[in-house]
Amino acid sequence: MWYHKPVIKEELLQSLPNLKIVASSGVGIDHLDLNLLSSYGVKLSNTPFVVSTDTADLGMALMLASSRRLVEGHQMAVSPDTEYFPANWLGAEVSGATLGIVGMGTVGYKVAERAKAFEMKILYHNRNQRNKEEESAVGAIYCKKIDDLLQQSDFVLLSVVLTPQTQKLIGKRELALMKPTATLINISRGLVVDQEALVEALQNKVIKAAALDVTYPEPLPRDHPLLKLKNVIITPHIGSATEKTRRLMMENMMESIQAGLTGLPIPNEVL
Amino acid sequence: MFRNKAFSLLKLIPLMSGQSNVAYKFIHPAIASPGHRCHRSVEHRQRYTMCPDSAGGRPISAPQTKVMAEEELPGVLILDIGGTHGVLENLAALLKKHFHLITMKEFLENKKEMSKKIQSVFVFECRPAIDRELLESLPNLKVIGNSGVGVDHLDLKMISNFGVKVTNTPHAVADSTADIGMTLMLASARRLVEGCQIAISPDTRYFAVDWLGVEVTRATLGIIGMGSIGYKVAQRARAFNMRILYHNRNRRRKEEEKAVGAHYCEKMEDLLQQSDFVMLVVNLTPETHKLIGKKELGLMKPTATLINISRGAVIDQDALVEALRNKVIRAAALDVTYPEPLPRDHPLLKLNNIIISPHIGTATVQAIHMMAEEAIANMLAVLNGQPIPSEVFPK
């Protein structure tokens, strides 16, 4: 399964009596009905670790590009109307700012490793607290309550898995808790954010800006308000879109499929 | 908002008897080797006429030093306050704490009286331009305090012949410029600007699955120019597990190399041949002019990206256009060009494997403020006969 296709429905499973395994590219499995697959005795694998560094890199890219207004700046630099570069055109600094990571799994932790080198203060919120060595290696401070993280962060980065619990994790209330100078970065799933609440928050400058690699749906309808806002950058779900990583994903999937077909323990099996 | 930065770089030191001015000591956050960086291309021309909508001349109330009245503070010449090229208003307020602010307009309207008062010039984004005529008309000028680290827009020899000192701001620029280098590298590798265009384009119906960028993590970064900024780039790149090569006039100490995992390339060619990303962080001098030309671009990998956060003139721009057109290298990301902005019909603007940003290396609220503070501390040190933190000398 590549990029969520082909879609796995009951009809398809019924028509494939010898189906042993579905190997899904990427780490997210929110597009699959695990119970359905299990009821047909079909195994499932994903590719969790190989996507981590690229996704963390993209999270950093979005944070930097948003805060330094890179997309706007590029447009100014190449626009036929530009005659000079104005002196009062400024962005905000990433170095030394506070980053709040919501979801400190593999991807979230790799973001923290990178952000530390920019001398950022790192807060994180997670289902479970990481151990002391892991925390001190990146200088991350645990916020048991997400509210504390939201109130103190200059950048809030979402790197959670999409589950019923994390759906609309960031809504009107959470956006209002954020600083008016803060930026929301989403590299998890579009549904983790209440998109309508986000549009309103951005329109009313409740938060400063957003940078989204993921939306719901993808792509957004062409008349969606998010596409018109000046303080948003959207990328077309490219968290793992590099040649090397895609090749590694394929290799992982091959391994899982071969193991699934020969009855051996399946690497990256999703249970 | 200004978190861990050594934001207030000025520390009051006790007045000594006989000193007529309030004295300040400059505290800079970290030890760094001096790197003289350039701010604007050489052909920048000053305009003595004011923009119609400039706010020039309007006094801004700011807290005055208790010790003296405004007129007794040393005079500092600036182009203007506000408007398209003037000093930002909050920076003007900072200057007013220590200086009697005189705009170019005020100076020209009353040359006789004003010329004697001007002991310093605050050069902001290369303005006002310092030419012979100006230097001749300022008999009491002691120092030119440049905002920014690059001084390629200043004729250091000519200024020195007038007995005037020049200072820059190497410490204030380092973090924000290193950040922009990383931003350009990541954005180029992951095709961020292109991606944004696809995401919002009215023609987009789906996201293509075979649309790919290149990896940054574990790739090889070659840093040309390992001064303060280059070193901060290395510190950041290391966290991405990048393999770091560097080329510099002088080799760094072993401990410094080890701390960022950087390997010295005595020959620039070795760096060019091995790097996935080549980042230029040198200052502009006659030696680094067109440092990267056709030969150097030819040595780079066809999958490599060139990033420039130094000065446009460090690259042979015509050679770069050709290299990008013929896919001799994969892409380029430039915060600086020659001139700035480029003429609107320049071929660089039409290429699709290039990102250009409008010289925003220090364009953050924090950096702009720190640069003014650092320049003020330097100018005051000259006027008070104290050790000067960042003086620039002609070669």
TrEMBL record, chain A:
Key words, A-Z: Oxidoreductase
Domain of life per record: Eukaryota
Xref: InterPro entries: D-isomer_2-hydroxyacid_DH (IPR050223), D-isomer_2_OHA_DH_cat_dom (IPR006139), D-isomer_DH_NAD-bd (IPR006140), NAD(P)-bd_dom_sf (IPR036291)
Entry keyword Secreted: no
Keyword Oxidoreductase: yes
UniProt GO molecular function: glyoxylate reductase (NADPH) activity; hydroxypyruvate reductase [NAD(P)H] activity; NAD binding
Domain D-isomer specific 2-hydroxyacid dehydrogenase NAD-binding intervals: 60-239
Domain D-isomer specific 2-hydroxyacid dehydrogenase catalytic: 3-270
CDD domains registered for this protein in UniProt: GDH
GO CC term, one of those recorded: cytosol
Cross-referenced Gene3D superfamilies: NAD(P)-binding Rossmann-like Domain
Pfam families assigned: 2-Hacid_dh (PF00389), 2-Hacid_dh_C (PF02826)
PANTHER family for the chain: 2-HYDROXYACID DEHYDROGENASE-RELATED, 2-KETOGLUCONATE REDUCTASE
Family named by the database record: Belongs to the D-isomer specific 2-hydroxyacid dehydrogenase family.
Designated name of the protein: Glyoxylate reductase/hydroxypyruvate reductase
Record lineage: Eukaryota, Metazoa, Chordata, Craniata, Vertebrata
Chain's gene name: Grhpr_3
